[in-house]
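Researcher: Last one for today. Full complex below.
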Amino acid sequence: MIKINQIHKSYLTGQNSLHVLKGIDLNIEAGEMISIMGASGSGKSTLLNILGILDNYDSGAYFLDGIKIEKLTERKAAQLRNKMLGFVFQSFNLVSFKNAMENVALPLYYQNVPRKKRNLIAMEYLDRMGLKDWAHHLPNELSGGQKQRVAIARALIGKPKVILADEPTGALDSTTSLEVMDLLQEINANGITVIIVTHEHDIAKRTGKTIRITDGNITEIIVN
Amino acid sequence: MFELDKWQEIYSTIRKNKLRTFLTGFSVAWGIFMLIILLGSGAGLENGVKEQFKGGATNGVWISSGQTSLKYKGLKTGRQIKFTNEDYKSIKTTVEGYDRISARLFLGNKLISYKNEYGSFFLSPCHPDYGYIKEVDIIQGRFLNTIDIKEFRKVAVIGEKVKSSLFKGADSIAMGKYIKINGVLFQVVGVFRDYSRNDDEQKRVYIPISTAQRVFQGENVINQISFTTGDASAEEADLMIKKSKAVLAKMHTFDMEDNRAINVWNKNEEVRKFKALFAGIRLFIWIIGIGTIIAGIVGVSNIMMIVVKERTKEIGIRKSLGATPWSIVALIMQEAIVITSFAGYIGLVLGVGLLELISKKMPPSEFFRNPEANFSVALMATMLLIVSGAIAGFFPAMNAAKVKPVEALRDE
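Model: Here's the assembly. Have a good evening.
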């Protein structure tokens, strides 16, 4: 599903160039659930952003489901994100003035699904997350766990092949974290590839494989 | 770009950002409102002054006799100049380019009666052309004609006010009736309304000048000669005046430089002066109006900048969910356009409404009447605001669309 060869990435900060990724090789099969671990600044989030086509890379090659991701136009990148990928963020990133249902339905808006139909589908996904009664609440009326479940529903609604989660439990208490991980495992069981960036060992242990990144290099691959 | 779904998306974001929408809209509405009020007041002022010029052709020239103030060819000053029919005839034959010409005799107010009703009205003997020069509006019958003059007919054209005070109740029909002017019977052949709002102008009675000279005077004296200059340019009109003056100076032996021997009132010149004044006022209004619009534009730009800044994260989220850059630009711009056009329309309606109210409730004064907004100008200003709203939204939106989602999503 995901194949990257010798990915390099540097950031320019003023006059200094910060070499963040120093030749990453990674192969993730369809249906795998893996975690990426590393100290902050190790480059794990950068890697996730590159995998999510949210950021570009300097050299190397990246294939997503056989498609070479290289020098894409913004438009093409947006379409790929919309069709192939689902994102879950630490800070949820819900649109604050849209209610839960509208947030979940948003990816379908960019697929030109009519409003009524996409709201109906969004309700289905919220129901699956057990949030049907909260569909018309704004994000600031929801608890952290509820917010993250809305975000997961939103990530799933476009029927993506890969879910990318950046510290999905970082802002949640341990009980809620477990619930969210249960959800992600359930999603994975349905055949969707799940990649989680985390620094929590408990979380990492619940994935099939843990990739440890140190200083821009993969230093360890642990099969859990 | 114009599918219903996009409008619903815009509507839902506008609805959920009421205060921001209101603030953006307010500057636009205010700008348009002020512009409409300014333009309307300017128009009101102009209409008021224009009203002052009604009742008399704008290209009319009135020449009245006066007293000499300069010694000339051994003649002393203070001589009373008396125009006669000869003056009228020689101006008529020697001056070229005039359109209509008439002489007038000033007999002052006369006692005029019909049966038991009577009143004192201003008698104004003249030639038929005077109806045109004075812009008399005939509402019944006719004005004087050349046969009236030739045959010394005893006919009269009376003002509306004269008619209403002499012909009352069951006897309200004036046409064909005989009225007594200083004891002489005249037949009413027409009723007029003067364009000017001046009440005195409606209390006049026009009779043939030839008849008046024979009946009331017994000589061939006249007091005033007036003519219209047709399509003549200002210079040509001045030349006509100069020629008339020369003719009169020769007939009555006075100095051409003597400005008091005869009095010339050139209405065209007065109109020209006022036109220049109003061109100045209009320019002034436009400068202020454009200033107001620029203030509106700056307001819109400012708020759009903040809007885009504020929504950077939202834009990042949208992009991560598959929004194309163009869809982001379109979203922001359409929102800006919807807000500005809607608010502009509100300002327009309020401005026009207030002007309507003023023109309905406020009695027209001497220098202010019927304030009105030039609709096409207002529409143009609204368009300008929409375009500037779009431009103001466009560049920040382009920048926002260019921001990499990873940067927009970065946690603070």
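The longest strand of chain A covers residues 16-28. The radius of gyration of chain A is 17 Å.
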